[in-house]
Amino acid sequence: MTDAPIRVRFAPSPTGHLHLGGARTALFNYLFARHHHGTFVLRIEDTDRERSTKESIQAIFNGLEWLSIDWDEGPFYQSERLDKYKAVSDSLLESGKAYRCFCTPQELETRRQEALAKGQPPKYDGRCRSRNDHPQGPYVIRFKNPEIPEILVEDMIRGSLSFNGNLLDDWVLVRSDGYPTYNFAVVVDDIDMNISHVIRGDDHINNTPRQITLFQALGASLPKFAHIPMIHGSDRAKLSKRHGATSVMAYKDMGYLPHALVNYIARLGWSHKDQEVFTKEELIQFFDLDKVGSSPAIFNTEKLLWLNAQYMKNTPSDELSELVKPFLKPVLHPIEYESPDSPPRLSEIIEVWKSRSRTLQDLANSVYPFMDRDFSFSEDVLSKHLTKTSVPLLQAFKDRFEHLSQWDKPSLEHVIHEIGEEFGLKLSQLAQPLRAALTGQSVSPGIYDVLLLLGRLEVKQRIQNALSKAGGPF
Prior knowledge:
Residues 320-467 form the Aminoacyl-tRNA synthetase class I anticodon-binding domain. Helices cover 43% and strands 11% of the residues.
């Protein structure tokens, strides 16, 4: 690694939400900067006036902030740097490294079609290169591309790359409206901001030779390039909506934890031994570009769910209590707990549920019956567990629980053991209809945890309600 200061940048175009690919690029830049004690710059490339929006800019900020990817400098906006781009383009004109082109779009398209018909590359033919006149009408500023047969670059991920310089044309630096093109503004900004490493998606590889020749024309040192492979879906095609959500904030809305998503996208193309779960501090400690692969990373929703479940399990219940609240429906029929002065806190309910939940939405669905009596029984639960055959068993539970002197685990174990012997059933066979009656679900934590959380009065009322659903007596 060079001794020069490490300076990297994330430079999104604000034309939509922050997607997973962009978030991974931002994360890799962030981790690289933190690992090498460098500087992470945020730059908003908003010179596309038709597609760039304030809403998209805010969506980018929201996504980065939710993922805790914080930047050191910026945000800088290209739309606020037009004077800088004009100054650089003027200097290129004066030095003869750029020229004004007055060809109309119609003329360019005609020549393009003629070249294609002849089997030639459809590149600009350079006919305005030597013009000294200044006709009226709009013009663009083109870069006078140097005649270099081969352009070489050593990519930190993909190794040696070679580009045929003869295929490059005199590309546009400044459009007729005075706005810079992407490749021009990027190079000016990277020079001005002293960017040492350009870490970006490999869909930008084709931009690299144009940018290299412009760096050289401006007398600037080249940054080091590192092109990250794309993210693909399970079908090996580029990740898109058909593979699931691609927007970062959609995962927040689905109940994923930000640290889990950061952990997952960090592992899309990067690895450290066989480790799967990383703290943020570990990601910073271990991350470097030499462990980033050159093959496309495969996005796997099930693996992300598994990883999110690990984070759910290991997050303190008090913290999960705050995170789950936006996912809880309004409580319309609050539970009348036996001890109204000290009902179970949400964190206590979460403590017994979180190890069975993969997302915050899962957790909300599970804890909701412990907060609101107005939960519904699914058809599956009714048909399998709350049938006429379960009525005698539920009635026995209701009668025995009602007369218990102590509502504690030993007393509950004794009652359930007795009922099991009377009915000739194992604990699993006893617990399933009882669980369905108390939670409306076929899966829950241990049945004793459920009974103790709800309390005697609530258990009695729920069994009574379940009996009515099953067609039994009250």
